[in-house]
Specification:
This protein is of the alpha+beta class. It has two domains: 103 residues, Homeodomain-like (Arc Repressor Mutant, subunit A); 157 residues, Regulatory factor, effector binding domain (Multidrug-efflux Transporter 1 Regulator Bmrr, Chain A). Helix content is 41%, strand content 21%. It has ten helices and eight strands. A hairpin with a 7-residue loop joins strand 3 and strand 4.
Length: 287
């Protein structure tokens, strides 16, 4: 359970520094993880982003301060990271449904979010089908885009990228170019440690390909690794999201394995993505 304890350590760091400016890199270091992998794990376990958790907790503490002290609203706004009273009021209303002055007069109800405590529930009700294999390096071709991890820009940008490659013919070309062992279109996540002080990631829409790289496409060599491959069945994107959550909340805490930190990918077949029988896979490098 050391893995769970490391996540909790990062959450404790957030709580201890709520009045300070924090970067995703500073937070992820507490869990001994890269910014990308910590962000992914946190969101899967909690159903909210790190940024949203910080906002909720700050606005919870701000509301408590307004109703228990005589501090000026402008001072509370600055204390919890808002540059103007207007920005504070807008964020406060979004969470609590009322403005700060109404909270002070006890008008309306407030929405409080308590400090997170990570607990792993070992259900085992939904069986997970997986196998572990070792493979030499995997060569893929595809389209690459860099996404910032700041403000969870990657979470917003990757779905838009998929919309583009599905509509501009990229996925059709990649499907025709597939000649490797892995039969499908891949969504590859690469932790970009050397760019922007570990504040970025590369995302590839790709396919395994042996031979020359076609014009207009790039090539990526995924390192040799031991892989755990999970079967995923169900309509997209819900089935894939559910699989990720089950893996991080149930499989990793009890498997004895850790994420190896090298690229991971989702593999999509040509099945109907809306079908309850749609088949796909998750490939995660482990150590």
């Amino acid at each position: 359970m050391a893995w769970v304890e490391s996540i909790q350590k990062a959450i404790n760091f957030i709580e201890e520094n709520l009045l300070e400016e924090m970067t995703i890199e500073q937070i992820s270091k507490q869990a001994n993880a890269s910014a990308f992998h910590f962000q992914r794990t946190f969101t899967l376990l909690t159903n909210i982003s790190i940024g949203e958790y910080v906002r909720r907790r700050r606005l919870t503490l701000a509301a408590q301060e307004l109703i228990t002290t005589s501090c000026k609203v402008i001072d509370v706004a600055y204390k919890y990271g808002y540059d103007t009273p207007e920005a504070f009021t807008k964020a406060f209303r979004r969470q609590h449904g009322i403005v700060p002055s109404e909270a002070r007069k006890f008008v309306g109800k407030l929405t409080f979010y308590e400090r997170l405590v990570i607990q792993v529930t070992l259900k085992g009700a939904e069986p997970m089908k997986f196998n572990i294999v070792e493979r030499d390096s995997i060569r893929v071709i595809g389209k690459k885009r860099e996404f910032s991890l700041l403000n969870e820009e990657n979470l917003k940008g990757i779905p838009k990228m998929w919309d583009e490659v599905n509509s501009d013919g990229t996925c059709r070309f990649l499907a025709k170019s597939n000649n490797g062992q892995i039969k499908g279109i891949l969504g590859v996540c690469v932790d970009n440690r050397d760019a922007n002080s570990n504040q970025a990631m590369d995302y590839w829409v790709a396919t395994e390909h042996i031979g020359e790289t076609p014009e207009g496409y790039e090539c990526l060599e995924i390192p040799a690794s031991k892989w755990v491959i999970f079967e995923v069945r169900g309509a997209m994107p819900d089935a894939m999201q559910s699989a990720w959550k089950q893996i991080f909340s149930e499989w990793f805490p009890t498997s004895g394995y850790q994420h190896a930190g090298t690229p991971e990918f989702e593999m999509y077949t040509d099945d109907d993505p809306t079908s309850p029988d749609c088949y796909s896979e998750l490939w995660i490098p482990i150590k």
